[in-house]
Amino acid sequence: xxxxxxxxxxxxxxxxxxxxxxxxxxxxxxxxxxxxxxxxxxxxxxxxxxxxxxxxxxxxxxxxxxxxxxxxxxxxxxxxxxxxxxxxxxxxxxxxxxxxxxxxxxxxxxxxxxxxxxxxxxxxxxxxxxxxxxxxxxxxxxxxxxxxxxxxxxxxxxxxxxxxxxxxxxxxxxxxxxxxxxxxxxxxxxxxxxxxxxxxxxxxxxxxxxxxxxxxxxxxx
Length: 221
What we know:
Tetracycline Repressor, domain 2; Arc Repressor Mutant, subunit A; mainly alpha; 64% helix
């Protein structure tokens, strides 16, 4: 028998008295819902995954998803944001006081790890395949991940102490996209051509070479 559908603010803990659930319980249930939604999006595709199927698998009410996320598009944005946030383990770039290269190196390696993960690659394939007929999918994907990342990078590069370490002729508005291109490398090719890995493949060595190009392009010698 299926579990009863619960509001996400109900921790569903038997034997406890009535009252407001703990913040940790609410967060745990929210993360469980996001994990289930993400798995279903990957398994069935965005357009073929209904809120009803997500609610049923997560044992919550459809209304709960609407109230908390505003619908399927908002839920996808939350799924992507949650996965992105888990990869950024270091101090926020806005306040990190380490040397320029250390900050960017940490970001680049964490972002590269995210981009090459099977889950992220499959989600990007879903977006590429379904975006022409589901424009809200492309918008949700962009706003839930790439846009936030580029805005974070823009704030970092605009910091006076960071700007002072870069060549004065470097255009700040193109730097986020330039760095992301250096991190991603031949990402589109890998998404389209699912070739088996060669013994000669060394993604980290290739990443370091692209980062070296980035540093030589933007930093004062």
